[in-house]
Amino acid sequence: MQTLRKSLLNKALWMLSATVFLIWIASLFLCSASRSVALDEFEGVWKTTAKNYNDRFFEISDSTITFGTGDGTQDIFFIHSATKTSGDQGIIITLSFDNTADTEFKLSFYYKPYHGGVIYFKNQRDVKWARVNSMQGQKSSDISESKKQ
């Protein structure tokens, strides 16, 4: 009788441990997983005051991203998904888009909601992009930091 109780207790503890472990693993995946995000927060024309990009911009709409490539030219791509994840430097937005030839591209950027929104890319953290209608309200220290580029 004593052996049967020990055996049942051991099985119950093992099942409880396994359940807790599986819940912990599931929570890791759910908490760190990318989540779909609406594009309305990022809609608009984005420019920087960095002199290397005087004639450059990008524009995000609910279905397209347009890159101003200089000399009045632009490339338009069709967005098919947008995800949000947490990164070491803040919120990371990843856009998946393609062109008319169905070539798929991905673009990831950090997004900070202050001053009407600021975007910067991982490889260019000093170049801050702001929505055109928000650039007038941007702090002069933010603008001069971008001009150094």
Structure in words:
The longest helix is centred in the N-terminal third of the chain and has 31 residues, at 2-32. This protein folds into two domains: 1-33; 35-147, Lipocalin (Beta Barrel). 26% of the residues lie in helices and 42% in strands. An eight-stranded antiparallel beta barrel has the order 2-3-4-5-6-7-8-9. It is elongated. Mean pLDDT is 80; it is low at 26-32 and 136-149. Strand 5 and strand 6 form a beta hairpin. With 149 residues, the chain is α+β, with helices and mostly antiparallel strands.
Short description:
With 149 residues, this protein is of the alpha+beta class. The chain contains 2 helices and 9 strands; from the N terminus they run αβββββββββα.
Question: What class, by secondary structure content?
Answer: alpha+beta
Radius of gyration over all CA atoms, rounded:
24 Å
Q: What is the level-2 CATH architecture name of the largest domain?
A: Beta Barrel
Q: Element order, helices and strands?
A: HEEEEEEEEEH
Instruction: Estimate percent helicity.
Output: 25-40%
Poorly predicted parts: 26-32, 136-149
Strand content is: 35-45%
Label the overall shape.
Answer: elongated
Q: Treating each run of at least 4 consecutive H or I residues as one helix, how many helices?
A: 2
Quick one: CATH class of the largest domain? Mainly Beta
User: What's the number of extended β-strand segments?
Assistant: 9
CATH topology of the largest domain: the name is Lipocalin
Report the span from N to C terminus. 79 Å
Strand order of the largest sheet: 2-3-4-5-6-7-8-9
Which sheet architecture does the biggest sheet show? 8 strands, antiparallel, barrel
Tally of domains: 2
Mean pLDDT: 80
